[in-house]
Each structure stands twice: as structure tokens, then as C-alpha cells.
Design a protein that fits this description.
The protein has about 160 residues and is an alpha+beta fold. The chain contains 3 helices and 4 strands, in the order αααββββ. A hairpin with a 4-residue loop joins β2 and β3.
Length: about 160
């Protein structure tokens, strides 16, 4: 009788161990598939990030802070590029508050005063700015430079007005 109980216990233990092994193997395979899937997703995302970073670098070239030559030009004037960008941007936005027509927007407003909304530095000499009077809108290319006395000179070069 004792031998039978031990034999049944032995078979039960073997079956239990077999069940545990199969269950753990299934869990392991499932986790392995999940890890492989996530690894592939990360690889795809990394390649997308690399492409986007390359595009950002390419687009950033046409900015004051992204163009090494433009930054060197400004630094040779004795200013930091961020400082110059800040000064120019502030001067452009201050032109919105003057009396009469904005001198930087060579387009006559039909419904009020033209105001510059956005500014994008292209390099150490040119800025692209978006303007509107609430009804009409357009863009203006502005030339900027600092003279011998470090005075900022802003000159609109050309503009375009978009129809409503």
C-alpha cells in the first residue's frame, strides 16, 4: 500500500513538474515574442527619429542659430547670436506699436494697421516675417544689420500679400 501511495505521489509529482515546465515554456515563448516585437518597434522608431533629426538639421541650417557662418559673422561684430536675435526680434515686434503704418510692412492696410505676428531668421542678414491686419495677411523679407555704431538697421526688401 505504501508503495502504491509513493508511486501515485511520484506520478503526480512528475505530472505536476511536466505541467509546470510546459506552462513556463509557453510563458517564456510568449514573452520572447513580445520582446522581439517591441525590439522591432524600437528599431523602427529609432530609424524614424534619425530621419527626422536629419530633416531638422537640414531645416535648422537656414536659421541664425543653426548656421555656423551666420553665428561667426554676428560674433565677429562682438555680440552673441542669441543676443542679436533677441534684439532684432524685439525691434521688429516694437514696430507694431508705432503710430501709423508699420514701416517694416510695405503693404498698405485696408482694415487697420498691419502687424507682424511671426519672425523667422534665415541667416545673419535676412528675416522672414508674417504680417496681418486681421483681414489681409502676407509675408515680408527684411534685411537687418548692425552698423559701425552697433545700431540696428531694418530694411524691408520685398513682400507678398495673400488674397483672402
Amino acid at each position: 500500500m505504501k508503495k502504491r501511495i509513493f508511486m501515485y505521489l511520484f506520478f503526480f509529482a512528475v505530472l505536476f513538474i511536466l505541467f509546470q515546465y510546459m506552462n513556463e515554456k509557453t510563458i517564456f515563448e510568449s514573452q520572447e515574442k513580445k520582446i522581439n516585437s517591441l525590439t522591432n518597434q524600437v528599431a523602427k522608431k529609432d530609424s524614424i527619429n534619425e530621419v527626422l533629426n536629419d530633416r531638422i538639421s537640414e531645416l535648422d541650417y537656414f536659421t541664425l542659430l543653426g548656421n555656423e557662418n551666420a553665428m561667426t559673422y554676428i560674433e565677429n561684430l562682438g555680440m552673441e547670436a542669441e543676443e542679436a536675435q533677441s534684439l532684432v526680434t524685439e525691434a521688429i515686434y516694437e514696430s507694431n506699436f508705432g503710430d501709423g503704418q508699420n514701416a517694416l510692412v510695405p503693404v498698405e492696410s485696408q482694415d487697420g494697421k498691419m502687424r507682424i505676428n511671426k519672425v523667422r531668421f534665415l541667416n545673419h542678414r535676412w528675416i522672414l516675417a508674417d504680417f496681418t491686419d486681421g483681414t489681409y495677411w502676407g509675408e515680408v523679407l527684411i534685411d537687418y544689420f548692425f552698423d559701425d555704431k552697433e545700431q540696428l538697421i531694418l530694411t524691408p526688401i520685398g513682400s507678398t500679400l495673400y488674397p483672402n
